[in-house]
Amino acid sequence: MMVVMAHDPATVDHRADGRTPTSVETRSAARAGTRTSPWPRRLLVVGIVLAALNLRPAITGLGPLLEEVRDGLGMSGTVAGLLTSAPALCFAVFGSAAPRLARRFGPAAVVLAGMAAVTAGLALRPLAGGTGTFLAASVVALAGIAVSNVLMPVVVKRWFPDRIGPMTGLYSMALSLGTAAAAALTVPAARAMGDDWRLGLGLSALPAALAAVVWLPVVRGLRAAEPAPSAASTTAATDRAAEAPSTGGVAADGSAADGSGTAGRTSSLRITRSPTAWALGVFFGFQATAAYITMGWLPQIFRDAGVPASTAGLLLAVTMGLGIPLSFALPRIAARLRHQGPLAAGLAVCGLGGYAGLWFAPAEGAWAWTLLLGISNCAFPLVLTLIGMRARTGSGVAGLSAFAQGTGYLISIPGPLLVGTLHQHTGGWHAPLALMAVLMVAQLCAGLVAGRDRCVEDELRMRH
């Protein structure tokens, strides 16, 4: 998530359409940025980094050991495909509830609960005696990841309104680091503990527990620094009423404020009527499809081509690790462009090149295909940036984030499952790779539309 910045990118917040914030927006941002004392904000930065580190290890730590898990639990290829689709399904189902939970309990408290759920799920997963229990524990962990996924941009927008770009880059880098570390270290950890895949997977619960421990004082500190509830409610209502006439502010549930000043009234306009919101949702969906196919099946593709398990895990780690530097640089580049479609197209072309390499020479050119797929996977920080650029207000970002991620993850559910089913029935990887290439072309087309210079509030107001 990022907005276009000029002059001093750390202090000046310009909108994606080039206009400067209104006086109402400036005062609102100032309140959001100064309502906490320095120490909770510094601890919040640590909490954001630790939370981001734990948003993918539950997924990428499983890929390199998927064969051992299947053997140990008697899991079929179709069920394994279901397991690789579970992240998208959980992100769609539980992520859609995140804005509602945040309004009731506060975004920081919900992230804390999310980290606790991740810890519990990852700790219980190695204890599973069968496929059903393993899936249930995975769902618990993925539910915690889902709500944190949606609320990370909201936390940044609320408490760091003058540092949106750097903070987005920071947590995107941390997310990529956690993703790569889990892929690289899970197999060596399992081998160091007697080739026990259960212990190897269970270690990922430790950093999640650390994140939960840090978020506990963060929540307490932020609550102590917040205004009294009645004052906060009055301020929020005043801001929404003031912002609505000029921005068509979108509430976190996707509705647009009508600007009438009447408490509780909302316009009949919904974010589902925004073409840009739909384009972002579709783009998010296809990039998530590619990412979860890569995280779930890429190590197995390499292993079936004769690559050792530890090397296959390392290759996945490199694929994910490329997101560390690129996640920091790409949002900054995207924010300086009026149309981000060419960036989306370039990433998709890299993905198509990687798939072609896996088709013709999976083992011989493994490192080259890994690099191409790593670049392609950076569509994720790009879509996060676009979510921040395609809404004018904090509530708009919350609504757009929930809609784009919820819609996107629903779209991405069938992909990994179909890959597993095709592989099981054909006995090879050519049919799955052909499917992956078709989906990547669809991602390219959606990215071109999502990259247009539009804001959802403007579209909703024009349709009113």
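The record above closes out task 2.4. Task 2.5 opens with a second protein, given below.
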Amino acid sequence: MKKKQLIILLVFGLILAAVYIWQQSARTSDWEGGTESVSEHLLPADFDMEAVATVRIEKDSQVLTMVKNEQGWGMQERFGYPLDFANLKTLFVDLYETKVAQQLTLDQAQAGELSLVPGKGAVLMTLLDKEGRELSKLVFGQKHERESDMPPTPYGGGGNIPLGRFMELGDGQYILAANTFSRVDDGITDWLDREFFKISDMKQAILKDGETVLWEAGRDDKSAELKLAGGVPEGKEIDSSKLSSVKNAFSWIRFSDIADPASTPESTGFDKAKVLQVTDFDGFVYSIILAAPVEGKQHLKVSVSWQGALERKPVADEKPEDKEKADAEFAAKVRENQDKARELNARLSPWIYLVEARNVESVTIARTDFFKDKPKPEPAKEEKKEQASTEAAATK
């Protein structure tokens, strides 16, 4: 790296550090020096977060209910679908550790202006134990932010500095908390565990409608491109971009929501579904049931199994001690893959997922859609000369 570039990077780093330190100092100064500053936490010191079995969050017409069961935490409004526990843990830690920055005295009108009145933008959180008894009730109002005194620069600065949030702790006890609690504003789907499935090394793909094979594609090694099985119609050639789209269709797929597992096939399009069976180079087989779109919604189901080799092919002139070690490693890998397939299938197969229609458009096409017209051959040189002479004579 050139000396001039290094100096620029160092200056850039110092500017960012200065902006961060200034913002942190500005935030701290907002809490210090006032006679109303306190150090109490939101929850009592003896509050047992482990006793919380239900978290209910209500805002206007939306209600979300997170419930702890034997399998973990699930979203009641999404049929018990698992939550991303990392997000819930962050919320619990914030609730337990956040301090009260200031005690506030507000009348009803002032509370309404700060969105601390139900039905007027307030977020009501209720913590319950496994018996349904209320452990705590908290009301979250507007976030408290202060406009930055620092002008915006290409390296940061400007905008608002988040300082805290106006809250009611119950019985009309209004406070300013030293935390914005952004997660309590999340919608239902924001809390769901977003882990899905991923196929990055597709070896083979077969699309079926019932027992009828609509098309099949595969490749022999990871460095090769997919090839479409079967012949090519006269005057046509394979559109390689279509096969490339198939190969990458599930390398980064995400779901948008969860449908009721008890939905009827007619309401979700599974009465007219096709099945795409994808095998990767590790022997994992994904059976993806692709429903017909219903009212613009695309549903799918997925199940997973492992169908790799159960026996290792011995190497020529392999020593006994090497064979024993290799067999043990191979057997351990087989068990690992079988366990992984069982875990994936148990996590994915019970659910009906909603995905963007564009995520599956590349794999639901007909076989004829993989072809394009061959380019017309260029005329021979003599034909070109004769054509040019004819056109020149015609213009005279």
